[in-house]
Amino acid sequence: FPLVDDQGASTIGIKAPDRPYLAVLKQTLKPTLSEVLMGRAGIPKPRVFVLAPVVVHGEFDGYAIGVLSLEQIRAHLESSSKDTTLLYTLLDKQNNVIMSNRTDQTIMMPFVRNGKGTLNHLGPNISQWMTDAPANTPLSERWKQSFYVTETIIGNLAEWKLLLEQPVAPFQETLYDTYSGKLILLFLVLLGALVLAEFLSRRFINTLEKLCLLTQDLPIRIVTNDGEITWPDSAMTETEKLIYNFRHMETWLRSQFNENRQINESLEHRVAERTAELTESEERYRSILDASPIPMGINDEQQNITYVNPAFVQSFGYTQEDIPTLSHWWPKAYPDLAYRQEVTEAWRVNFDTTRLTGIAFPPLEVIVQCKDLTNKTVLIAAASSPDTFKKDHVVIFYDITERKQMEEKLNEIVRESRSAYSLMRMLCDNVPDMIWAKDLEKRYLFANKALCSDLLNASSTEEPIGKMDMFFAERERTRHPDNPEWHTFGEICRDTDALTMDAGAPQQFEEHGNVQGKFLFLDVHKAPFLDDTGRMIGTVGSARNVTTIKVLEQKLKKSEASLRTLVQTIPDLVWLKDPTGVYLDCNPMFERFFGAANKDIIGKTDYDFVDRELADFFREHDRKALTAGVPTSNEEWLTLADNGYRGLFDTIKTPMYDA
Which of 419-428, 482-491, 535-544 shows the lowest per-residue confidence on average (mean pLDDT)? Predict the structure, then answer.
């Protein structure tokens, strides 16, 4: 603070007991920045004071004060608004005027705009002040009397606000003066252009009319060789170019028409040759069908049966004369009406699907009655024949009667063993753990309900049979293509299967990932699957859902890490001792007290770092806290070993108990 003010008077002895900042200093005992106040030394003007308390033995004993000059701010604002119509006003947080170039504002008085009006917000930090005007006042006149306003908060302590106002009137006058002259000039230019356009259009309109008549039906005139075409001339470059393009078009079209005539003649010759080739191909194709041991027939789009090969006649006994159309075939092959309707409908659906989509015809298993009234089980498939048959279709019959008989025998064996399997299935499906068996190709041989519902999302325990883990993983990912985290199991199951087979012994794994969008953690046990001779034929395994346990473990670890981070970063001294006073842990702030690292403090006592008197003092309060069984508080004068700082600390000691 200067000893002499700007009027030459001494500043010694000036009193300010009523200043509001004195109460704040006495209460906080911390340096502070005052609000804007009118100075009492020299010429009265707004001032900001920086104050620091003088503390003696923990009590307020005066303060040091410094004055911040606002002249640099004023000079910067004056320089920025010089030669412009920009108005500035700096306000404190009570909305009092600190400085302004507006003539209607008083320093350190509340900011008030003259006249009535409305402040319209246009966007972030920008508004428009519109003064109230009498009714029917033109909008342009109201804009002329308005100005744009922007407010900016300055500083995190003083919380000042800078108000910038820009009148619209100067810009509006400049805009009117500039564009009124330009609009008149533009009108004159457009008027001249219209006169010139009228004159030029009459010059080339006659030529365009002639050109329109000549180009009418131009391709027909060229094809019929209706004489040469006499094109008009024009003095205008653009029209002459257009006429030139039509001349060039005429020449090109004549050449193309001549070329097309030659191509048509060549195509007619080629069609005749191709017809002969197709006839020869049809004969070769029929000879192949005749020699095939598989029964085959051909029918056309009108459902006429145009061909059956010898193997068909031998298998079913029907000749082409017996079944000339599909209407003759259906009742002979399927005499039962209900079964016939079922077969014909399935045939129609498969046939239409193949014709429309181009996919292979799905084989249809049916029972056909032969001419000798015996029945055969066959698979029927259809395919489009070569081009020589045009829209004909080849129908192929695979006799699977013997295979079906063998399947019946196998089914009988399965039924005999189903009782034992049902018992095993019941046991496995009633345990909460997942149980399965796989072959050497990692395809499921067995899966219980828990595995199907909790991991594979299978519709039944039979669906996984013959499939691998990746089938179900890819199916889930396909159902949710926009969520790559929906299902992440699959690869890990496949990999641990391989590890188990390579090891040739029971293995334990922890497998985790997302299943149907939810996190799943499994404790997995797998072992080789051996047959009666001891040969490995696959793997068996079980898995237990331990997600809840793992989640709780993770939360506990995260909680411990968060607590340690808090202790490590808190600015207070934090430590942990055992009942005998041996240090178990401490934070970095406590390390500064002893001037030693955490690892050098752990396992030692206060007597290893401070004098006996202070160490006894610490131990006495340790015992009081243990005896009280509740947090206790005491004040201690401590000196930090790392920088020599000495201060009075409020120490809180709390006893800790195990579980």
Answer: 419-428
Q: Kindly give, in sequence order, each residue whose CB lies less than 8 Å from that of residue 11, ignoring residues fewer than 6 positions away.
A: 1, 2, 3, 4, 5, 41
List, in sequence order, every residue forming a beta bridge with 395; answer none if it has no partner. Answer: 297, 382
For 346, residues 6+ apart whose C-beta sits below 8 A from its C-beta are 364
Whether 242 contacts 215, CB under 8 Å:
no
What pTM was computed for the model? 0.32
The CA radius of gyration of the chain, in Å to the nearest whole number, is 51
- The C-alpha atoms of residue 316 and residue 310 are separated, in whole angstroms, by 10
* Tokens, residue 7: 């009027």
Give CA separation, 565 vs 123, 561, 570, 588, 601, in Å: 43, 6, 8, 11, 19
**pLDDT tens for each residue of 561-601:** 877 787 788 888 899 999 999 999 999 989 988 899 999 99
Quote the Cα angle for 217-220-223, to 5°: 150
CB 635 within 8 A of CB 648: yes
The C-alpha angle 329, 331, 337, rounded to 5 degrees, equals 145
CA distance 97 to 46: 9
Q: Are 347 and 354 in contact (CB under 8 A)?
A: no
d(CA 69, CA 71): 6
As given in the structure block, the two tokens for residue 494 are 């496949």
650 beta partners: 635
What string of H, E and C letters represents the secondary structure of 328-368? HHHHHHCCCHHHHHHHHHHHHHHHHHHHHHCCCCCCEEEEE
The whole-angstrom separation of Cα 396 and Cα 309 is: 10
**pLDDT the model gives residue 1:** 61
- Which residue from 460, 461, 515 is spatially nearest to 488, judged by alpha carbons? 515
Name the token pair of 402: 């013997």
Task: Please say whether the beta carbons of 247 and 219 come within 8 A.
Answer: no
Cβ-contact 290, 309 below 8 angstroms: yes
Look up residue 9 and give its two tokens. Answer: 């008077």
**Closest Cα partner for 442 from 523, 364, 529?**
529
**In which residue are the tokens 């910038």 written?**
164
H-run or E-run covering 549: helix 547-569
Strands 117-123 and 126-131: antiparallel
Could you give the C-alpha distances from 449 to 460, 528, 615, in angstroms and in order?
Answer: 8, 22, 67
Mean pLDDT of the chain: 83
| Closest alpha carbon to 473 in 520, 510, 526, 506 | 520
Q: Average the pLDDT over each of 189-203, 422-436, 591-605 and give the range with the smallest value.
A: 189-203
Between CA 267 and CA 273 the distance in angstroms is: 10
Residue 609: HSE in the Cβ half-sphere, 13 Å Cα cutoff = 25
User: What six digits make up the tokens of 368?
Assistant: 């056909």
User: Which residue blocks in 468-611 are alpha helix, DSSP H?
Assistant: 469-479, 491-503, 547-569, 588-594, 598-601
Under a CB-based contact definition with an 8 Å cutoff, are residues 297 and 290 in contact? no
Residue 453 DSSP one-character state: I
Q: Are strands 87-91 and 97-100 parallel, antiparallel or unpaired?
A: antiparallel
Kindly indicate the confidence band of residue 198, based on its pLDDT and cuts at 50, 70 and 90.
Answer: low
Per residue in 292-331, pLDDT (tens digit) is 889 998 888 888 998 999 999 999 999 999 999 999 999 9
